[in-house]
Amino acid sequence: MPGARASRRVVTRGHVVHRACRFFLRHGTVDMGALAQDLAVSRATLYRVVGSRDALMADVLWDLAEHILDRARRRRTRGGVDGVLEITRYFVTALRASAPFEAFLRAEPETARRLLTGGCVHRRAVLAQRSILLEAEERDRLWSGSGIDDLAYLYVRVVESALYAELLSSRRPDFALAERTARALLRQTL
């Protein structure tokens, strides 16, 4: 029809993240060209919506981790320190059992290290751990609220040291050591 405007596909960041999560679960990565094609938008539009591949990958990794973490929190059967460790144990086991996540760690170790241990995924993990510690605090009066931010940060670093051992030091993960260390950290601050 002459004079008609060309239609433009409008996508939101939430929609892009959702589709990128689906792509990641199938491929263990996010290919921006393939994702743009899947969304029926140009690569330029995709980058305008998400900013960068790293920003999108961080959102994808956190979205997937948050789902596992929420499931772990719902499955918790214990209180106090044991409940906190139970959530972590479930989370670590589920995450390391994820074939797409393992494929990502192997294929993109530098990106994984940058996003998981030094970027917004790490910051979100610390905030989530803070929330878990506060839940335990409300139930069992374990920690003083004033040091909870430092405790959450240190706890996440202990877990990361095992979860991403291959990325950080080329060592094999030692989850038993990480759990003993995390337990000692939690008990030390009682």
UniProtKB/TrEMBL annotation:
Bilayer-crossing regions: none
Family annotation (Pfam families): TetR_C_36
Domain QsdR TetR regulatory C-terminal, residue spans: 80-187
Name of the protein this chain belongs to: QsdR family transcriptional regulator
Biological source species: Streptomyces atroolivaceus
